[in-house]
Structure formats: C-alpha cells, structure tokens
Amino acid sequence: MCFPKITENEIAGKRDTQQEEEAQEWIEAITGEQFTKGSFEESLRDCVLLCRMMNKLAPGCIQKINTSGGDYKIMDNISQFQKAAVWYGVGDVDLFNANDLCEMKNIALVTQTIFAVARAAYKHPEFKGPYLGPRPSEENKRDFTEDQLRAGEAIIGLQAGTNKGASQAGTNMGASRKIILGK
Question: Domains in the chain, please, with CATH?
C-alpha cells in the first residue's frame, strides 16, 4: 500500500491563524510572558512556554524546564509537557508528536493540543481562568422508574416516521403495462 506524501503546503493549509492568535493570547495570559521569538511556531519550538504554562495550571507538574541546549533538551521538554498534559486530563489522541513541534512540521496539531489543555482546565475547579474555547459538555445522567421505561416502549416516536394515510392511490408511475395475448 502506498500512501501519498503530504506536502508542506497541505499541512500549512490546515493551520488556522485565528486559533493560533487565541492560543497565543491564552498562553501569554496564563504565564504572564510574551512571545518573543517572532512567529507562533518559533516561540513554541523549544516548548519552554508550554512547560511554564503547565506549571501555572498544575504547579510542580514539571520539575525541570530546559531553557538552553540542543535538540535533545527540546525533545525532553516536549516529553515532559506531554506527560504533564496527560496527567492534567488531556487524552492521548489530542497530543501532538514531538516532531510536529521540534521540526515545526504540523503546527496545527500543536494548536489543537493547546486547545485540548484549555478544555481540560474547565474540569479543574482550582483554575479560575482565563479560559480558551467552549466549555466541554458534562454528563447528564437520568434515572427512570420501571413504569416510565415501560410507558416509553409503547410510544412510537416520530423519528421512526409514520404511515398514517399512506397508500398508493393516485400513483401514476409512467405508462401502464400492456399484456398482449395471442402472439
């Protein structure tokens, strides 16, 4: 099986600059630090801001943030951020791969991870804001009695449709069938 190669232009097409701006403003509000390296991806590349953001959301969740060093230190920061994000409540499917940020291959996934961290923040009552994105839905469990459940079985919902008044009277589907005898 051959998979088509995804070009950089296709990946860049998935990026949403408005979401990136919202994520940047949220990170700046949480950490109290400004993005200084120019572009969104350059400021996040070493993952220092993301680690500091996680430490603000959950103090002490990342023990050591590497502020200098090569790619190995960057990968260590990314790994620590991802572990802290999972501990905070972000699902594994919402995390970006290390190469997405380190090599700046898919910044759209990095932005989605930031939004996933923001959704997880809603579930922590100790966090008082600012918030990013909509509040996630919560379970609304209901308890019904046996009588209520049995009464509901007798009702045919209109989603299933109705056949009231359904007949084929007056239907004319093209020419009538002609039967020729004797040939």
Answer: 8-122 (1.10.418.10)
Cα 89 to Cα 30, 36, 48, 54, distances in angstroms: 18, 29, 20, 12
Q: Are 135 and 115 a contacting pair, CB within 8 Å?
A: no
DSSP string, 27-93: HHHHHS----SSSHHHHHTT-HHHHHHHHHHSTTSSS----S-SHHHHHHHHHHHHHHHHHHT--GG
Strand boundaries in 85-145, DSSP class E: none
Residue in 22, 85, 15 with CA at minimum distance from that of residue 50: 85
Rounded to two decimals, the pTM is 0.69
User: Which is more confidently placed, 176 or 136?
Assistant: 136
